[in-house]
Amino acid sequence: MELTLSETQFNLVYNSFSFVIASMGAALLYFLLVRSRVAPQHRMAVTLSSLVVGIALYHYIRIFGSWNDAFTFTNGEYVQDGTPFNEGYRYVDWLLTVPLLLAELVIVLKLAKKTTNSLLVRLTIAAVAMIALGYPGEIAAADDSARTIWGIASTIPFLYILYVLFVELGKSVQRQSGGVKTLLDALRYVILATWGVYPIAYMLPSLIDNQANAEVARQVMYSLGDVLAKPLFGLLVLAIALAKSREDGYVEPGSTASASDDVSELAEA
Ligand code: RET
Q1: Given CA atoms 156, 194, 23, 105 in this order, what sign does their dihedral have?
Q2: Which residues of 72-100 are buried (b: 16+ CB within 10 A; e: fewer)?
Q3: What is the pLDDT of residues 184-226, one digit of tens each?
């Protein structure tokens, strides 16, 4: 597909990718630094957050490079006549990070081992199916009916994931203690709100006639979606892991901030 973008359009995508790289890098550093504040039994979820943003950092560096290589600046416009822009990086990224994000949510709940394993297997299969089925449609032409067909096929496992998170996991979430329950509810709504952005971005080339606008909007929406679904989601998971660590009475070794916590714990007792 040959595309011509104005300077503003090209830069909007360029700067979005740059913003994502900075966000993923900062999130990676932060998750690694705060890890010791979480009790060992709740650390796995934070470790997974670090992996997710680390994988995304790498892929966005490649996406950024691919975007720059795909266009040449001629007569005040960016013409797509270089190496084709590789949409595959995004899908490989999702293939790795979406199952990890779902695993974070399941692991931080600390359910019975059997339930955890069954959830992990089913959610991973559904996530892989959702992304693998979406890819052929993503690289199909805007007016190709394959786009719609693959998109619908990919929506089936997507709906299954939402069913598991909202219906099956509903009871386990209700059983969690007060503060943790509120955070978990927030987490599930963050998933609903942010993951919902992806199918909409996917449909844009078929919905908008101007393909330059559609491409810019799609790339910007996917980028924002990734910042909300990875670093923001990771922060909420961290908050849950910290709340659970506090409930379990964990104090970070060598921490000086624990004095006031001890006082408030005494007051509660
Ligand atoms: C596709 C194809 C069209 C139909 C649907 C899709 C859903 C994609 C989703 C992606 C989520 C990605 C995340 C990345 C995070 O870091 C594949 C666009 C339903 C939900 C959460």
Answers
A1: negative
A2: eeeeeebbbeeeebbeebbbebbbbbbbb
A3: 888 999 999 999 999 999 999 999 999 999 999 999 999 999 9
Q: Which residues contact 188 (CB under 8 A, 6 or more apart)?
A: 105, 165, 166, 169, 173
* Number of residues assigned to the chain: 269
Q: Which of 50, 60, 94 has the most ligand 1 atoms within 8 A of CB, as the residue to mutate?
A: 94
| Spacing of C-alpha 58 from chain mean position | 14
Structure tokens at 94: 């999702």
Identify the CATH class of 4-250: mainly alpha
- Where exactly are the structural domains of the chain? 4-250
Q: Work out the angle between the directed axes of helices 145-163 and 197-207 (0-180°, nearest 10).
A: 170
Strand partners, 30: none
pTM of the model: 0.91
Instruction: Compute the distance from residue 184 Cα to the ligand 1 centre, in Å.
Output: 21
Nearest CA to ligand 1 atom 17: 134
- Tell me the β-bridge partners of 4: 79
